[in-house]
Write a structure and sequence with these properties.
about 240 residues, alpha/beta, Rossmann fold, two-stranded antiparallel ribbon, globular
């Protein structure tokens, strides 16, 4: 899910993060991934304003955790349809947003699922959503992008190449994960900063999205696998 790179400022709230998420969202089936239910919001702008008020801080990124974004929906759909990708393996859902992708992996028999986010509300939402779907996802507020995602055998990410600065950190992270042997899968609805030459397309979907958040009601979204770098020949 899209997520700005920032330092987490918890701020003061009048309710717990989990209570906030429950109070501002409703549980509903995810379009195109009806196997999964998520706590989602109806109005992005209204929730954004409420989030800033609750945190006592202006300029927070949008509440990406309250919506099912096309990249994550596509990866979740692919995981649900291809359980062999995650069954019996350790999985990392990075920039996890609502936790949709990690939940799909847990539903298809992953040995364990870890979800990383930099927003405390997102981590609360992941816990609530995992519980609603009867699975376990271990979520934490943490920025993993300077590492390699270890020890996860499968690294999943939805819609992380939408902004230049984010892409500049994410690609090296994913490359390091791939270099140590992890399978790296990314969902992307045609964002500008995806280095397509580094990936192999696995499948393509027409994903229904919230029109207020995107430029259309359907987004052509590709599931990509990061390929091994081409070895340079010695001269």
């Amino acid at each position: 899910m899209p997520n700005e790179l920032r330092t987490l400022h918890p701020g003061a709230t009048t309710m717990s993060d989990s209570a906030f998420v429950r109070g501002e969202t409703g549980l509903a089936l995810v379009p195109f991934v009806p196997e999964v239910s998520l706590h989602m919001a109806d109005d992005a702008i209204a929730l954004w304003e409420t989030t800033e008020s609750a945190r006592g801080e202006i300029g927070l990124p949008p509440p990406f955790w309250a919506f099912a974004w096309a990249g994550g929906v596509a990866v979740a759909r692919y995981v649900l349809d291809h359980p062999e990708l995650v069954a019996g393996r350790t999985v990392l859902d990075v920039a996890a947003g609502s936790g949709l992708v990690g939940i799909a992996a847990a539903m298809r028999g992953a040995a364990s699922v870890r979800a990383a986010e930099i927003d405390a509300y997102a981590v609360a939402a992941i816990g609530i959503n995992a519980e609603a779907n009867g699975v376990r996802v271990d979520a934490a507020v943490e920025d993993l992008l300077d590492g390699d995602g270890g020890p996860a055998e499968v690294v999943l990410a939805g819609d992380v190449f939408y902004e230049r600065g984010m892409a500049a950190r994410f690609l090296p992270f994913l490359e390091r994960a791939r270099a140590r042997g992890a399978v790296v899968i990314v969902g992307d609805p045609g964002r500008a900063y995806l280095p397509r030459e580094r990936f192999t397309a696995l499948t393509e979907y027409q994903v229904p999205v919230v029109a207020d958040l995107e430029d259309t009601a359907l987004k052509t979204t590709t599931v990509w696998q990061l390929t091994a770098p081409v070895a340079s020949s010695g001269g």
